[in-house]
Design goal:
Length: 408
């Protein structure tokens, strides 16, 4: 039996290894547009490779139907993943947060071991091979690249992801191929990405970083709250809390909803107590400028912007700040609202949302319900995970199930 796998990422690699282990007589050709396999694996975790997470449920995913992931995550749970890693010689470092890294703390060791496993099993790897077309003639598939044509495949797996990280040759050709075979897909959007805001003072706050509580509002309704790092940038906001909240924010933004976030700089202090603390500071040093005193609480970049938003003159002395203005300052620090207008785009996104509709794919075999012997796995499907190894774990799990199907 002859099989083509489009995309040598996590899903495509584990599908090839699993299938070959089950049936050594399979002929498997693995195609990738890059010069090496697993480019997104290499990029994960800032090069340290956040390869998985040991605390995963379907609630860690977004999509039209996140429960679609349940069977795969159960069949290929963390214990199964750990066993697979040991089978290729890869030992893991499991952090208290649930994040999982290679014990070597180096992503390259992961791709090296995966490549050795592929080579040992006799999987044919075609690098720098961008697929331009897939067609089915009777019951066989033909694959076309820029320079060659590969014919008569019995089965094809599309696992070449979506548009996140175009600098790694990421693209949405998988959706084009899916559409050609009658599949529909939900609009794609960048996920785990910095957010652009419509404020004129963005540049003035560039570089300010603080642990804050971030609340997401969609059409005025509170949808999510996350605590973590917030980094102000020239375009808006980033940082771990923003990346996390961006998933739901951008999903709603892509559906033309009104999306805002509110940043609480002092989540452990309620608004009234914060106001009392500001008032006490002002009374202690009444002859000093209010803007200078506030820098004892927040960054010196935030202080003048804060006063401007609260319509307080930059030269106002602490003694001249009235109770109403103190209340306004406390409110702003407790609820710094920002309207989200856009994202940094796919070039800065860690993952892509949207993709091939899961209703058209079997959740146990990942075979197309529309075209026999056509399979999908990983990011090309309308499933996107939280930050922290969840996207890679779905890629491993979905690819594993495809591999079992291909190996039969």
């Amino acid at each position: 039996m002859k099989i083509a796998i489009i995309g040598a990422g996590a899903a495509g690699i584990i599908a090839a290894i699993t299938a070959k282990r089950l049936n050594k007589n399979l002929h498997i050709d693995l195609f990738d547009a890059n010069k090496g396999i697993g480019k997104k694996i290499l990029a994960s975790g800032n090069g340290r490779c956040n390869i998985s997470n040991n605390q995963i449920t379907s609630k860690n995913y977004l999509g039209e139907n996140p429960d679609f992931t349940s069977f795969a995550l159960k069949e290929f749970d963390f214990k199964a993943f750990e066993k697979f890693c040991k089978s290729i010689g890869l030992l893991l470092d499991i952090k208290p947060s649930g994040k999982v890294y290679p014990l070597s703390n180096e992503a390259k060791s992961v791709t090296n071991l995966l490549e050795l496993a592929l080579q040992e099993l006799g999987v044919n790897i075609y690098l720098e091979s961008m697929i331009t077309d897939i067609e089915k003639v009777e019951d066989k598939f033909n694959i076309t690249t820029k320079d060659n044509e590969y014919k008569a495949y019995d089965k094809v797996l599309i696992s070449n992801g979506l548009g996140a990280a175009p600098q790694l040759n990421a693209n949405e050709s998988g959706l084009d191929f899916a559409s050609k075979f009658g599949h529909s897909f939900n609009p794609t959007y960048p996920s785990l990405v910095g957010l652009k805001t419509d404020n004129t003072y963005n540049g003035k706050l560039q570089g300010v970083k603080k642990e804050c509580n971030v609340s997401l509002y969609v059409n005025g309704n509170l949808e999510q709250e996350i605590f973590g790092d917030v980094l102000f940038t020239s375009y808006g906001v980033s940082g771990f809390a923003i990346l996390d909240i961006s998933q739901l924010a951008v999903l709603n933004l892509s559906q033309y909803q009104d999306v805002k976030i509110a940043i609480n700089f002092f989540p452990k202090i309620n608004r009234n107590d914060l106001g009392d603390q500001i008032q006490t500071l002002f009374k202690t040093i009444p002859s000093q400028k209010a803007v200078d005193i506030i820098t004892g609480m927040v960054s010196n970049k935030i202080a003048p912007v804060l006063l401007d938003i609260c319509k307080i003159n930059i030269d106002t002395k602490a003694a001249d700040i009235n109770a109403k203005q103190i209340k306004a300052l406390a409110y702003q620090l407790n609820q710094w609202k920002l309207k989200i207008t856009d994202t940094q785009g796919f070039g800065h996104a860690e993952a892509s949302g949207g993709g091939v509709r899961t209703a058209e794919v079997d959740n146990k075999t990942y075979e197309s319900k529309l075209v026999k012997n056509l399979y999908f796995a990983g990011e090309v499907l309308d499933i996107v995970g939280n930050r922290g190894g969840f996207n890679l774990q779905f890629a491993w799990a979905s690819g594993y199930l495809v591999g079992k199907s291909l190996g039969k």
